[in-house]
Design brief:
alpha+beta; four-stranded antiparallel sheet; about 20% strand
């Protein structure tokens, strides 16, 4: 998949999120709760929380909502302890799918994820069955229309900040980092005033699978739509070349 279609897909997903604020705010709210539980409520001393706050602001989450989420997670009263769980499986045509979840009820989540795969003619596999087909990396997408820096200057800036790779596509720049360096690189770009269309630690497929059968395409879209509707689902990674 080219960087151009990748960026177009990110913009498409963001538009979907903009039309469903409740879902994305729920996802980010749980990420805030986990980040606070793991590293404390002070963003200055909690890089994971800083990254989640940046994601929240990129999705137009109100500051009051962010602050309430941090305060709620920092206090014992009323806070929910979320447990992370990852599911791996196969979609139509040999596609690989990874589902990251945060839940307060693992039985409910497991049943819902399994149901989504089944309804789309896919199947849940064992832990590790498809994750070897992906590389865990930090990925930052920069929209050319929002970036005033020259491509060469931007490349030097991101590489100096610790990025592994920098590529230029038709309408965007892609920055790849080691997961451990992601927070530092993202913060460096933020401090330099560089707007980011997307910034997250993700699973990047080593190879993509193209589907040509219309029924296979309908089925994988069914799986992805059902997972997207589930509040327990945080991220879905796949190697379908859309």
């Amino acid at each position: 998949m080219s960087g151009h279609s990748k960026f177009a897909n990110i913009k498409h997903k963001k538009e979907k999120n903009d039309a469903a604020k409740g879902k994305i705010f729920t996802v980010i709210g749980r990420e805030i709760a986990v980040a606070v539980k793991e590293g404390g409520p002070d963003p200055a001393n909690n890089s994971k929380l800083r990254d989640v706050i940046a994601k929240a602001k990129a999705n137009n989450m109100p500051n009051d909502t962010i602050d309430r989420g941090i305060k709620k997670a920092a206090g014992d009263a009323g806070s929910v302890n979320y447990v992370s769980a990852t599911y791996e499986g196969y979609g139509p045509g040999g596609t690989a799918i990874i589902v990251d979840t945060l839940t307060d009820n693992k039985n409910r989540t497991a049943a819902n994820v399994r149901s989504a795969f089944t309804k789309g003619k896919g199947s849940i596999g064992t832990q590790g069955c498809v994750s070897f087909m992906f590389d865990r990396k930090g990925e930052i997408i920069i929209d050319k229309e929002e970036c005033e820096m020259d491509a060469d200057d931007l490349m030097m800036a991101v590489l100096d900040a610790g990025a592994e790779d920098f590529t230029e596509e038709e309408d965007s720049f892609t920055v790849i980092t080691d997961p451990d360096s992601f927070s530092d690189v993202r913060q460096s770009l933020e401090e330099a005033g560089i707007a980011m269309a997307s910034a997250e630690v993700t699973m990047i497929p080593q190879n993509y699978v193209e589907l040509t059968d219309e029924q296979d395409i309908n089925n994988i879209n069914r799986i992805l739509d059902l997972l997207d509707e589930d509040d327990d689902v945080q991220q879905v990674y796949h190697n379908w070349d859309e």
